Description:
The structure is a homodimer. Chain A is mostly helical. Helices cover 66% and strands 7% of the residues of chain A. Chain A has a two-stranded antiparallel ribbon. In chain A, strand 1 and strand 2 form a beta hairpin. The structure holds a DNA duplex.
Amino acid sequence: MKVGGDLAGQLGYQVQLVHPMAHEAARAALEHLDITPARATALLLIRANPGCSQSALGGALNVNRSSAMKIVDLLEGRGLIRRAPSADPRAHALELTSKGEQFAADVDVALEENERRFFGVLSAAERKSLLEMLQRLHQRAP
Amino acid sequence: MKVGGDLAGQLGYQVQLVHPMAHEAARAALEHLDITPARATALLLIRANPGCSQSALGGALNVNRSSAMKIVDLLEGRGLIRRAPSADPRAHALELTSKGEQFAADVDVALEENERRFFGVLSAAERKSLLEMLQRLHQRAP
DNA sequence: TATTGTTATACTCTATAACTATA
DNA sequence: TATAGTTATAGAGTATAACAATA
């Protein structure tokens, strides 16, 4: 299949192509831990923000409260996080269990190895440049 | 929400962040045409590959035959493409109708404007560099 | 046997809306 | 009144499996 000249030169289309490949690579890299990239991301976000609420987590994951709850349910069901009491009794303070800390360390290793493998076709300078550009793209004001 | 140092520095995570933003931008840019980015992509791929089969289209879209058929059903139902007879009587030869040609031109305009808006935070040289890197990432052998 | 299109079915992810309990 | 969490329900997108027609 050819790609029309218009499409092939568009960054939006290239992002559209690269994303599922990167997602599949991450999925495969995490398969032995039986966790999806989205849930692994949630775990690492909770580790970086101990005591955060489910709503805040949902905001960072770009999902609503209802969807965030399902992710939290799953991670809690596996004993990786706990819903600790919060200063605001309406909310939960999410935090990793010791099992979750160990698991998150395993996730780190798997993702770092995947990072090297998937983006290895780029030089170190290119990876740095790409990282900077992607950060700029999503950090700008909407 | 903070992002753990491990996560923030990973290209995979940055792609994971930028993709939904780019998708949302494309969705909004195409909203007045009442078509989703995936279906618009299918239309442009058929235009670039007149006479292609549904299976070939599905391959380019990374979906299976069943899902490709639903997309083709929708585009045909809107009168944008037709299922023409193919040399292989098992297959259909997909092609744009004249209405589809006009519509695809509108899609071109919308996507080009979106491209300028969304990636406008990058300089022309950066956009060129980013395009080249993304192409290299998905063109490599699996 | 393998492939194209088709159909029916199921699964995953996410969203919406309504409810409760707090603030 | 506004917010956090919860629950039930619905939708979109995709996958699987089986089938008919044809290679």
